[in-house]
Records
---
Amino acid sequence: MISCHPTQEMLEKFANGELPATLAAAVSIHAEMCSECSAQIASYTEQQAEAGFNDVSSHDASSTNVNDEDAFADIDIDDMIAAITATDEIDIALEDKEKTITVKGKEYVLPRALTNMTMSNWSSIGKLARSRVELGEGEIRASLLQIQPGGSVPEHTHKGFELTLLLDGSFEDDMGVYGPGDFIVLDGKHTHNPVSHEGCLCYTVSNDAQHFTQGINKLLNPFGSFIY
Amino acid sequence: MGQTVTSSLQSSAKTPKTIAMKENTEHQALANWLQAVANERSKAAFTHLFKFFAPKIQRIAASKYGNETLASEVVQETMSNIWRKAHLFNPDKGSPTTWVYTVMRNVSFDLLRKIKTKKEDNLSDDFWPLVESCEADDADSQFEDHLASKEVMRCIDTLPEEQKCVVKGFYFMEMSQEQLAQHLGIPLGTVKSRLRLALAKLKQQIGGEK
Ligand SMILES: [Zn+2]
């Protein structure tokens, strides 16, 4: 049972395509495992589409058309259509073949959102192993983090935010036990040390506090419970 | 088909009292055009779609990004995706406007990411897949729909190497038969016959599993 979900604001931003890739990936993975959030995203998407394309009730139909044509006056419609339809090829969007990774002898199936991402080699310290996900978003960095059975993350404070999305296994702290799909955001004001008895794999996103923008910080800090 | 749809759309648009009905009729018309693009590669239907959506996309993108050039790029990319992906639209899963919105959202995400991070990894279809997973497919949907399933991927992997190359190149890497012939250094006729053989084999395997 998933107990930690993204906020409504995050779901809405995700539906609108407004999150950075590091966070969009996390929401996408969560939504794949959480029918509640997935339905919420579908409803935000529908609302947006409605507002953009179907907004006939608030305008007189004819005046809407005039505005639209004005907005589009500079473009040669016929040329554009001819160029687009010149090709007969179609895109077969197929589900990617399942991509698996093996970390310290344990195999995991990667969520769809991560299948086409470039990842660094794994580096490890004690019972922790980490691989950077190369998304090029500067101070916002994503990683895969594996905690081997019996391992824990040393207590530390983080000045920015840290998002932990549990992909496989479980871990616990003084706040509770977390399982696959749990979407845990913390801003580092609290310290604690999560322990994983059975081992786990997480997708994490964090930022460097000094460089972090106000807007996203606010978006990511609505929770009262913290992990790292 | 396009003609009847157009005239019914226009006549209902003249009656302001029937807004809800207009929306339904409009959705029906848009859905029909998408299907005509998918099934018949109808340029007439595409032109209708273009005239309906392109100005709206331009307006939405321009107001969102405050940049007319970028907005035109979003229009160009979205409309060409509609031409190439119309077969992925499923009227049972949602309205045509929502589908086009998701295409536009994905295109915008990839374009903005390219501008901001210089990455051309086009992740949007991984974050927001335009195709439902195969469980949802109804039994009599077309063979093309099944290409989206993992089952087919497994079948493709059992094909002889030379057929596998052609199928993957044609369907997954979007190469034309001519490009494939050139790329593989074999005659066009060979590409065509390998493709035909492979598809026959796949159809048989997939049919047999039902
Ligand atoms: Zn959820």
---
Amino acid sequence: MKLNLLLVTGVALGALSAVHPAIAEGEIKIGDINSYTRLPAHTIPYKRGAQLAIEEINKAGGVLGKKLVLVSRDDQGKPGEAVKIAEQLRSRDKVALVSGSLFSHIGLALASWAKQRKMLYLAAEPLADALVWAKGNKYTFRLRPSTYMQAAMLASEAAKKENVKRWATIAPNYAYGKDAVAAFKKVLKRLRPDVMFVGSQWPGLFKIDAGAEVQALAKMKPDGIYNVTFGSDLAKFVREGRTRGLFKDKLVVGLLTGEPEYLDPLKGEAPVGWLVTGYPWADIQTAAHKKFLAAYQARWKDYPRIGSIVGYNTMLAINAMLKKAGSVDTEKMVTAMKGLKFDSPSGPIMFRAVDHQSTMGAWVGWTVLKDGMGAMANWQYLDGANFLPSVEETKKLRKQ
Amino acid sequence: MGDFIVTLLTGLSSAAALFLVASGLSIIFGVTRIVNFAHGSFYMLGSYIGVTMVTALGSGGIAYWLALLIAAVAVGVIGVAMEVLLLRRVYQAPELFQLIATFGVILVIQDVTLWIWGPEDIVGPRAPGLSGAVTIFGEKLPEYDLVLIAVSPVVLIGLWLLFNRTRWGTLVRAATLDRQMVAALGVNQRWLFTGVLFLGSALAGLGGAIQLPKGGADLLMDFNIIAAAFVVVVVGGMGSIGGAFLAAMLIGLLQTFGIQIFPNSTLILMFLVMAVVLIFRPWGLLGKPESPGHGPVEAPEAPLRPANRKLRIIGSGVLAFLLMLPVAHLLLPSIIGDFTLVLVVEIMIYVLFAAALHFIMGPGGLVSFGHAAFFGGGAYAAALMVKFTDAPMEIAFWVAPIGAALLAILFGWFCVRLTGVYFAMLTLAFAQIAWAIMFQDAPASVAKALGEWFGWTAVEQITAGDDGILGIWPAEWASSRVTYYYLTVGLVVAGLLVLRRILFAPFGYTLRAGRDSPLRAAAIGIDLKQHQWIAFTISGAFAGLAGALFVYSKGSVFPTSMEIARSFDALLMVLLGGVHSLVGPIVGAATFTWLNDIFNELSYWRFLLGATIIALVLLLPNGLVSLGDTSVGRRLGLGPGREALA
Amino acid sequence: MSTPILEVSNLSKAYGGVQAVQDVSFVLNAGELLALIGPNGAGKTTCFNMLMGQIKPDSGVIRLKGNDITGRPPQRIWRMGVGRTFQITATFTSMTVRENVQMALINHQHASRRWWKPAAATDVAHADALLGRVGMAEQGDRACSVLAYGDLKRVELAVALANDPDLLLMDEPTAGMAPKERIELMQLAADIVSERGIGVLFTEHDMDVVFAHAHRIMVLNRGCLLAEGAPKSVRANAQVREIYLGSTVRAEVE
């Protein structure tokens, strides 16, 4: 019994390690790294969006006469693991470039790796400003609107509320939360020198002690609350805040709160009347988005999340870039990425040459309840180009 | 006034789930001496099953509360299953070996939960009739908080009655004090243990279920609660339920008031409390010193022998293989690609890290739960040196072990006063504090404060928190993959040989002497604490060297290099390989890293890895190096592993 | 006479309300085998642990060769020349017999922090000589964990002798041994005492052993020293016979 089990394990392990994907001619491989086990609720929609785009591209004849192949791998939420996998994708799978990732620190680790190995890395979802500014490098590009951009969008809308002067903030206690608060403060202060920030709360990520945090915020007697918490923290914060009457007569601004990933789990308890960035997928009326929505729902029997459209757009960007570069040579691809323009379900997007940030925008609007689910109303799509610093300013930010 | 009272009540209510989970953990540890890391997973299952039951039974009136109770019982049954199918078979294995078994369970439960309930967070159903708030002196408090405030004392009283008014409870208490005695009384120890696992797990499940109206169920709950639960158990005193109650309330209140005064302290506060308590009360608030002779009597370790012929041949073979691999890579790049070298570098780094941990854990007999502090400490020391002084790699490789050693000197000074689980938990507390310092970039805050005070312009950021330190790549001469490979292999092999040499020298013998018999060690003039402190420092230094190799192989360092999971990985490697053998950590680290890499390409890799770990625990309860003791090993001619490979 | 090896004055220790050792005073001279006897719970082990530094006395003074060692930690006391064997043998189970003795020798030379030269190659001859003295020369390479109990006691004795002690404290040296082994072990101890001129304080349950080997006997009862003197006078002491010695012993004495 013991013997058999051991042998079976041994043989199985041996067999597994021997499996090497064949390197086929006529394929361009894209190495996709994401936190598929750590945050599946966010990354699976991403993967589905990316796969849908790949399938559509291949159906239309591929690119440069070759088929695109997405090699997806899990980084376990660890930057070290992500770098190892990137190495493996590069050397064993011979991918042309690497894309993906959701966590900022993983995006930054991959960016650092890309620079060293001279590989193109298209960061899909990580939000850290440093990725394209303080730590930006030649080989790294980013699609999704960054922390700064989305915070700036919210700040510019929030600035329109004349009577909201005392602001309190709550954000998870790590780099993303700090950046998000700093960006919001900076832009709001510039637009409205009369506002004051009366306090900040910093719960541990996914460890919020919601009752205590709400109590602490209430004590500051703010007119406006800027929320950066998300996931299970957000659910607890919303429930506790509502029960304790924290949000009453206050303007609440929520970064990413309108994204289906965060809004939908709240179901009927979704906050109402918050100013948020998000993704009102059901209501976007552009032809490109309607087509994407129909295709996505047909393919996956599910509605898209923000990750889905980011995944989809990431692959569209790669497709457009390959067409422009005409080659999978890294230097040529990098040159092609600079200033690359393409159309997407969310509108035209351009990768700025100065900082490699795309101009993909975000939907900003007000949360409502619709059919017992959270949704966005009175929203507008804000083009990212309008919320990025000027070329001169950016050069300063990028100086290392 | 109103604010103070409501804050107070909020603190007490937030302690409820923590108390339930911690009391269960404490009961299990008290009787079985098993440090059940899967306890957080039981808490998570309690939430998920609770949600499912409420959906099934309806959320009105009695049905709701019944659903929560069913969830608790169901989790209790899962705990029993773990005891009967797994733990029962490894009670005789070396102490803490059960740890790995529970690690395996964690991984399996993570994937099973994902598979059953899907990836999306689930918001918990509200308790019927308790979704509003009461107003106290003009401040609002959720009604359900009052339920939670009542739950802890009710459970505490219930447990007290159970332990003091029933025969079963009396036996459990007796077993907590002295296991052998209960066995001698003719009590069926197995059923006692099974019962305790049921009770402890059900309490965790109940904890998960009753917090539903305050939160919900998500896939990260298991790891998010486990550290806190351990803190409560340790602060209260392992095995003391009253202590767990006191500690949960204390921590609940400190958190609630603490974040009003220091909003930034959320990550660190709990661990600071634990460190302070352990320094002044080494056995927790209401705990008692661990009596020697507690727990299972282990088979004594075989004496150290210099490498025999077999080991020399295997060792030389492995070394030759390592040295020839790049040559093979250059000749046959299609078969042995770049990645093979990358993987071997990674394996070697973890081998050194595991060997460093083993140094203090095996021969030293002190199990560290927080060794990633030194691994990450070394990595950060090197990275910071490069970031701020542009130091060349050659210098950074010196700075890393020295930095880690300094950290170990500091932490060790507090830690070596304790033994057993208390030592382990204090190392965990310090590691967590170190992690939080990096994660929140506390040095930059300090620099900023000093800067304002003295009128300097302080640097914006030092560790840059979660954004990490990037761009730490090897010097030009070592930047090719083959060179860095040889550099790693050379340093790791040299490190292993030095560690081995120390263990064979009087110092290593003295360490083992102190582990075997502290009484005799003192009676022949050994200042044990001092030797343990030095050993802790040496161990930290080598872990730091591994950290430096790590940061240069990855090009960046993040606080994740210090997180609890990394410490546990190292622990797993040592235990998996075999703690009673010098070769054990090497075999364990290599196997674990390799398995991790293979499984990683598969979906549900956690399930596979967890199942593999469980299988290994059951088949080889003395670690991988005991393979030679099994029938297969004998047939393969490996010979008695522990002796031969010692 | 020169300074006594051990001089204990008014030693006391209480646990909670219980007086474990009360006002005990005695002297031990070189070359002397002094037995400390008493019924269970009389305070023998507490007394021993105070002498060795495991427990701090509440009051009283312990002098070793004239130096006050009261309350010093065991390591220091050992360094000043006190060897000890335990009631339940305490050896290093993961080492060989020889290595156990080598550990003591290494520490005697303050060499426990050396980290390069293998320990197993240190002081081999010296260790073997000590093992030879206790009749364990043949077993040097065996693991301590596999030894018979009587042999472990001998190993402990060899270990205790490694620092050339002036004083040897032996807590129930023959407990758990067969009668024949007991006689042999105590004879060995007695021989070593006369050879080296060291003092031995031992506790013992076996009255045959005590009366056969002890030069002097102290009787402890409920923490107090009840009687003290040569075996003969202790044997004759009516109080001792009444309180401590059982009827079988009394019969034997008469």
---
Amino acid sequence: MSRVEVNQLVKTFGSVNAIDGVSFVVPEGEIATMLGPSGCGKTTTLRCIAGLETATAGEIVIGVRTVFADGRDRVPVEARNLGMVFQSYAIWPHMTIADNVAYGLRVRRRSRAEVEERVRSALALVRLANYADRYPGQLSGGQMQRVVLARAIAYDPEILLLDEPLANLDTHLRVEMRQELKRIQRETGTTMIAVTHDQSEALALSDQILVMGAGRVLQRGAPEDIFRRPQTAEVAHFLGATNELAARRVDGRLVVDGLGLLPDGVGDIGGAASARVLFRPSDVILRPADAGGGWPGEVVLEQYLGPDVHYLVRFAGGEVTVDVPSHSGMFAEGTAVSLHVAPDSLFVYPEGAS
Amino acid sequence: MTAGADTAAAGRDVRPTPRRVSGLWIAFVATAVVLFVLTIYPMIWLVIGSLRVPGGFGMGNFVDLGEKFAFAKVLANSWIYAFGSTGLAVTIGVSLAVLVARTDMPFKRVARLSAVLAFVSPPWLTAMAYVYVASPNAGLVNRVFHDLFGVKPFDIQSMGGMIFVTALFLYAFVFLTVEAALASVDGSFEEAARVSGARPLTVVRTVTLPLVTPAIVSAAAFSVIISWGLFAAPAILGMPARIYVFGTQLYLFLSAFPPRLEMAAAMGVLFVATAMLLAAVAWVFRRRRRDRSFAVVAGKGVKAASMPLGRWRLVAAGFALGVTMLSVVGPFLVVLWMSLNVKWFGSIGLANLSLANFRYVILEYFAFWQVAGNTLKIAAMDVTMVLLTATAVSYFVRRTTLPGRFVLQGAALYTVLVPSVAFLTAVMWAWIGSPIGLWGSLVLIAMTQAARSLPIATRNIGDGFGQIDRPLEEAAAVCGAGRGRIAATVTLPLLRPVLLSVFALDFLSALRDLNTPLFLGGGSAGSMTLSVLIFQLWSETRMGEAAALTIVLLGLTLAVFVPVSRAFGRRT
């Protein structure tokens, strides 16, 4: 169990900065998640921590050892004492499950008895005790996921790295394994760093989330903090605030073209003349047009999703999407409605920060 | 443990880096030295030899080639022979590949199996069989026609005959290349064309063939280069009719007294240069296709649904079975028949059947066991060298960033562009007067065969490395395994099927190789192989004995091949 510290990490491919000055600290025994769209540098950062890729500049410290500094790997991957869960699992097809799990222990020349004991307890931890002698080809996706996990923790690595650990599972299994992952982390107390592009995975799993974009950390914080108080429009957008409106300052108040005034007390935009306003489809309440108040609009498209109904609503200045629980009544396509968004659900960011 | 007290917890897993790197370098340099000796050194001598004239160096040999040795005629023959064989082989091979990979033709497995057999069967076998059947005077079919109609219509000992027999072996190479390419092309391209309303033949013409054109072009280019390196068929079919091509003319130069080594070198240089030019043209062609964003490997590798042939199914089946008959089954049966016959070109009857030929070659020929032992020893040495070198080269290219690794790969691959007999001339120049007593030894024969086999082996093993998902090895590194341990516990076990198929292919081609031991053996029993003995018996017109020994060789091949292919089992 160790803390991990990454300082001003830079990784250049040709003239492109895949990682552009990333810094963060993961305290001992916590789960941190790097969240971001593909190409944001999160996987590259993870691979640099693992030592599978050599960064260009910066510093990586695992526990008490500086494993990378001055553009050079000081400790090679095999000596970093890590566990890693690969997106493609990477379970060796020519070895049994037990041999897969035992690999790291045998590399460390542990006694035969200890290997046996630890393989048994690792498989028990992931609830695969009866599968030791099978070959990987006979396992399902969820079981493979558990094997990788068992293999990665069998030798008590200092930290556990997870590269899109749940991406290859179907929705149902993903929720189950997410819970399993957190349970195992709580039981073993291993420091974990995960990479994902799925916000619910990051929110559910993490003690700390690092939202990344274009090779930088855009924001870091606890899940609720990130979700409730995104600091930039990119972060807000990536965390589900997909509706965006343009607002102008008129007489000291913010006005959205075609909709009207924003409620008092939303975001301070300093001296900027215009702002971007973002909100989540699920934070909108729809009411019939004659209910009064709110922004006027018209339902263009309705999609029934079961628990929710998904609407596309047109207003004078554009379109927004709205998710409302289906038990609260339906609006037919063509219905005139009014949109209500609570002030603290509107994320407002000054534009052209000059 | 010098790292200090604060790392004690993780202490036993902390290792410094330098040692493994130097080990890697030692292996790298060793591989480079081996490759230099095997493939580069002889070619340097070929160039030197071609320029050596009495009293110094000059272009005299090239002038002599033109003036004294009717080189223009040999050149013309070689081109007609190579391009004729290639044209016929491409026609047969590509049509068969499309039929097997894309239609509901019956007997697909037969067609595939016979292509493999045709590709690995001894090069002299087909030629011997066709001489027996269709030689101008005594050939079996000609005699039958003579008795019935008073004419002898077939003459296998002609340029046409050489092309025909050679194409029956070369088509297999084209077929295997193009069929593999078709198998890797995503079937949805063609299904899209069919859904758009194109009829099967139109689909083949407008989608299928254009998609595999790069494969066809390189198969054709290599067929030409292979043809230039062939010796057995031109010798058995062409020399009696005084038709000389590159391989047989070289043989004349080398077996003349005194040997015209410098002439052979000059001619070798010319053909190597031509072959390289041809390969360059094919490469540029492929390159241009790729530049037009010609992405063949896109898609998920879905197998194309087979196109129904309807009434043409039987015609296609007839074609496939016909090729099988002409290239494999027929020749094998004829040679078997020859081996059991003691009376030559006599009546077709069972009365003359006997095992006398077998008794002679196995029990009475004084050096049979020695010769058979030589054959196996050479093959074993060859395979060992090829597997070690090709695996090492592929490892350096695919798994390290050492400078110079691509030079190594180039050295391992380039001999595919050198016609076989030209390379043999080069080896001769390199070692014949050398103080290291390799000349005439089994080791030199094995080394030369290894150099010839390296390109295919390196390519296959390299592809094998490419198919190993990188995370499988990265996972081992993360678990704490070093470079050597990863190779031993993950990479090599996963490569096993590829290594075994390379082993099998290489062992087979070593057993049936005639060119290398014939040109480099020096003729004594100490370095003779079964193939050379067969050729010698044939030259002495002891055809039954030659056929019997061929059957013995095939038996030996099967005895080695069947257990090995069992061992790596069925790959489905």
